[in-house]
């Protein structure tokens, strides 16, 4: 069982700002990797926060240069070279990375490009990958939209996973939800025909939005003949946010669509 690394938080120096964190990990993930050459727009994530534990910090220092990637939006990635020719699945918003590591361990012939902005999670996933001896995981830091738009070639991906994206409950925040028509159009353009898009959420209104938006895409078809939700596939482990949602009595919906 792949689980979160448990160790104590490293106190940040008195008065340290988030920008200072780069100083803690000089070879690690950058605070704003795409920088000011990219437009300002509504984002689907909160600023990364949370303390980095000593184990996560150690993993960031040692493993980021080898397995980490800042999303600077400046060049198209050579995924064949990064993953030794394996098919590549993009996971957006891996959180602490437990489910990512478990799925990567269960399917070593698939490369997993895992993206999030959450520094402790990046360290956690790197540590898990090392502990489990995984060579098929790369950790990308920054906005998945910039990654898709600027750094992935059309048809370059063999799959897309979005598990428990931030639900943005309040109406005035709905525009921040990741799964929207524009996003789906961009994502579909980066998938090869036959690639699967797998989403899951425990927030019913967001599940309905996902079903509507994915169904409306001319590039995708629902793998469910009845056009509805898919029962949770065995290969998707329970995630941290899912466990919390189930604890609150929420129903989880999976959606699996195929690129035409
Ligand atoms: C609610 S958490 C779910 C984490 C994990 N999948 C789970 O189920 O435990 C959503 C994650 O998506 C990340 N995220 C949201 N929008 C993103 C984006 N545009 N690019 C990269 N990461 C993003 C957030 O930082 C957050 O860690």
From TrEMBL:
Instruction: Tell whether Lipid metabolism is among the UniProt keywords.
Output: no
The UniProt annotation places S-adenosyl-L-methionine binding at: 91, 116, 143, 166
Instruction: Give the transmembrane region(s).
Output: none
**Residues at which substrate binds:** 170, 202, 239-242
What name does this protein carry?
tRNA (guanine-N(7)-)-methyltransferase
Spell out the reaction equation it catalyses: guanosine(46) in tRNA + S-adenosyl-L-methionine = N(7)-methylguanosine(46) in tRNA + S-adenosyl-L-homocysteine
The organism encoding this protein is Streptomyces lycii
For molecular function, the Gene Ontology terms on record are: tRNA (guanine(46)-N7)-methyltransferase activity
- Region Disordered, as annotated, extends over 1-55
What is its pathway? tRNA modification; N(7)-methylguanine-tRNA biosynthesis
Kindly list the organism's lineage.
Answer: Bacteria, Bacillati, Actinomycetota, Actinomycetes, Kitasatosporales
Q: Which domain of life is it from?
A: Bacteria
Where are the compositionally biased (Basic residues) regions?
Answer: 38-51
Family of this protein: Belongs to the class I-like SAM-binding methyltransferase superfamily. TrmB family.
- Give the protein's function: Catalyzes the formation of N(7)-methylguanine at position 46 (m7G46) in tRNA.
Give the Basic and acidic residues compositional bias ranges: 15-24
Q: Which InterPro entries match?
A: SAM-dependent_MTases_sf, tRNA_(Gua-N-7)_MeTrfase_Trmb, tRNA_methyltr_TrmB_bact
This enzyme's EC code(s): 2.1.1.33
Which key words tag this protein in UniProt? Methyltransferase, S-adenosyl-L-methionine, Transferase, tRNA processing
């Amino acid at each position: 069982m792949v689980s979160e690394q448990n160790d104590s938080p490293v106190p940040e120096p008195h008065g340290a700002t988030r920008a200072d964190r780069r100083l803690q990990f000089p070879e690690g993930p950058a605070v704003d990797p795409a920088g000011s050459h990219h437009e300002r727009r509504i984002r689907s994530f909160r600023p990364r926060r949370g303390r980095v534990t000593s184990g996560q910090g150690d993993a960031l220092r040692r493993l980021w240069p080898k397995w980490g990637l800042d999303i600077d939006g400046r060049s198209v990635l050579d995924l064949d070279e990064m993953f030794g020719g394996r098919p590549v699945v993009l996971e957006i918003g891996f959180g602490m990375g437990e489910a990512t590591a478990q799925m990567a361990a269960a399917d070593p012939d698939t490369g997993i490009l895992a993206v999030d902005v959450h520094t402790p999670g990046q360290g956690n996933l790197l540590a898990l990958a090392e502990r489990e001896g995984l060579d098929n995981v790369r950790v990308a830091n920054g906005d998945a939209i910039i990654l898709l738009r600027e750094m992935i070639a059309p048809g370059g991906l063999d799959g897309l996973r979005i598990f428990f994206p931030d639900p943005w409950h309040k109406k005035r925040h709905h525009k921040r939800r990741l799964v929207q028509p524009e996003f789906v159009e961009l994502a579909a353009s980066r998938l090869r025909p036959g690639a699967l898009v797998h989403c899951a959420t425990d927030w019913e209104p967001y599940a309905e939005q996902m079903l509507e938006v994915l169904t409306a895409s001319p590039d995708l078809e629902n793998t469910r003949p009845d056009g509805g939700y898919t029962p949770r596939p065995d290969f998707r482990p329970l995630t941290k946010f899912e466990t919390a949602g189930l604890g609150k009595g929420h129903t989880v919906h999976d959606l699996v669509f195929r690129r035409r």
